[in-house]
Write a structure and sequence with these properties.
The complex is a heterodimer of chains A (about 300) and B (about 280).
Chain A (H helix, E strand, L loop, with lengths): L2 H4 L22 H43 L8 H13 L2 H33 L1 H16 L6 H8 L3 H25 L3 H9 L4 H38 L4 H11 L3 H29 L9
Chain B lengths: L13 E14 L7 E14 L3 E5 L6 H9 L6 E6 L2 E2 L7 E4 L11 H5 L1 H6 L3 H14 L16 H14 L4 E5 L7 H18 L2 E5 L3 H7 L2 E6 L4 E7 L9 H5 L2 H20 L8 E2 L1
Parallel strand pairs in B: 3-8, 3-9, 6-7, 7-8
Antiparallel strand pairs in B: 1-2, 1-4, 2-11, 4-5, 9-10
Chain lengths: ~300, ~280
Amino acid sequence: MSEQTIAPTPAPQRDKEKPMPQTPTPAGASTDIEQLEETTYTASRENWVLWGIRVCSVVVVLALWEVVGRQVDPLYMSYPSEIAQAAVEITRNGELPRAMGSSARTLTTGFAIAGVIGVLFGLLLGRYRRVEAAFDWMVNALYATPLVALIPLVILWFGLEFKAKLVIVVLMAVFPILINTASGVRDVNAALIDVGRAFVANERQIFTKVVMPAALPYIMTGLRLGIGRAIIGMVVAEFFTGLSGLGALVITYGNAFRTDAMLVPVLVLMVLGVGLTALLRWTESRIAPWKKGGDD
Amino acid sequence: MTHSSLLVAQQGPVKLGVHGVSKAYRLPDARGSGGIQQVLKDVSFDIRENEIVSLIGESGCGKTTLLRIVHGLIQRDRGDITVDGSVVSGPGADRGIVFQQPSLLPWRTARRNVEFGLEIAGTPRSRRRERAAELLELIGLSRFADRYYPHQLSGGMQQRVGLARALAIDPEVLLMDEPFSALDAQTREVLQAELLRIHGATKMTVLFVTHDLDEAVYLSDRIVVLAAHPGRVKEIVEVPFERPRLDLPTLRTTPEFAALRTHIWNLIRPAEQTAPSCSRGEIHV
């Protein structure tokens, strides 16, 4: 259930050895770097082509949707231009901004709490075998459980308001963060820990100067996977506890057979998911420049 | 020809003492119970101040274990390690180590890697920077100090940074664990010459593990030849060449070099023919 989720996208590298041409003098290194730039140049031209194809694909699909959508009963399907009009309408009357504000509050607070708990607990779980033995079964069991099934219980305990929504978001988002952090800590190259010990670092220094930086890319991967689940948790919470936010808009317009307006919050959620994931992916690459070649 | 006749009396106090060091490992076997493998048995030798001493022997038969025991990363079963006469156990800032793989921290630039040991020791930032700049200058990488992460440096450059990192803490003894064995031949020779140059400039004391005969003869004042099964001192060979030395290609053509090399080769070879491979060494159940 979890291999796919755990694997960080820049594949975890156990060994930092690169088969680089070895040069006896520092001067030789500039040759390596020039070669690197040349490769990047060719790659970037290929990139432009790929992006061109991507943009064409978007345009074609939207056009088809527009044409086909107009033939279908508006109860079952809407089309881009109508959705755009609905978006303008519910933005003007303030419904969409209000819903977005409410959802954003649930999402950011919940994700922040999940991040703190997941990273701290993951660090402990990955570093200390005894903590791991005490809790790993629980973490694995909860991660494997469809947590949506616990919502009735969450409602009994926390009611229908903001607190219950937070709990749902945290429950959904915390496990990928925790599990990735823990596996990042476990995967730290033993040779690097030896370096710490060789220079007489104490446990705290080994933790802060070796283990944590080495696990950082994994932590970022965990956060990226976590944000996706946090968004799902947020919508689910808005459906099943007190109706609010973007989830409420979907339900309300769905019940009113306003398919065009219903699709607006869905699209907002889509953009949100793509945007936040891309943002975290970008941060991931900035934060661990050694993970890719020649980021200079 | 006996090489003790070539002995050049070394002056200077003993810097590092290895006294009767023994080490055994429990080997897991197929049934999970396992036997005991004696890796080192009663190994003793001294290194005097400013000497370079090499440990050489069949591969995998205790020389790296011995170096790690001297450093304190591995515990010894018996015997003592002394630095300047006092017994040490566990890693200490009086011993710096260069690993076989550079093992640089990939998230730190060259300069920040050199500073690592000083940072651990709590040296103030300005002093750290100063010391790192000196060492990067010494190893010829000043230009690469802040702009590059380890993965952007060649293997030879990475190992230079590893050397600078070990030197930064001003150790009494520098321990080197086959530091050049992962490099190509050309880079290796350049770094060997560099090491001798730096040794000349800093007057440091070095314990150097290698399996390369030429390297041992070229670098060392003395060579501790280890026999295997269990690892023990077979002979300590004096290397008479004056410092500063000729470059390796030239030195290699001299008859003295060839004689010394053959002598050590003969010390190592018989063990290779009679003993099985190291992993199946002496097993007492």
